[in-house]
Design goal:
The protein has about 110 residues and is mainly alpha-helical. The chain has a single domain, classed as Up-down Bundle (Substrate Binding Domain Of Dnak, Chain:A, Domain 2). It has helices at about 5-25, 35-55, 60-80, 85-105. α1 packs antiparallel against α4. The longest helix is centred in the N-terminal third of the chain and has 25 residues, at about 5-25. It is elongated.
Length: about 110
């Protein structure tokens, strides 16, 4: 797998988690639960950071990709619980799962 494929997946997860956090706060209810919003924002931050590490060929990227994959999987699990009722959460879960998979392919 190429680094570009991973970067693309990380960028998509960053976008999806950021949008899902905003969406959740706007709609309220279970979508706005603090633990979920915090996880979405954490995932947005770490996927953006992982992208930066890959773009600059940081020697530390392997360690960061391990953590990124773990957090992205947790986020995907959380979003999947709400995916049946909310398309944005379904898209977020799929993007996070792709990012986690691509991160692991580079390890």
């Amino acid at each position: 797998m190429s680094m570009k494929t991973c970067i693309d997946a990380l960028d998509e997860a960053h976008r999806a988690t950021t949008e899902a956090a905003i969406h959740g706060m706007q709609h309220g209810g279970p979508l706005a639960g603090w633990e979920l919003v915090q996880l979405l924002l954490d995932t947005a931050d770490i996927t953006e950071t992982a992208t930066d590490f890959l773009l600059r060929s940081s020697r530390q990227y392997v360690s960061l990709l391990r953590v990124t994959a773990e957090i992205a999987d947790k986020c995907a699990d959380a979003c999947e619980k709400l995916a049946a009722e909310d398309l944005r959460m379904k898209e977020c879960a799929e993007a996070c799962r792709r990012a986690a998979t691509q991160c692991r392919k580079l390890l």
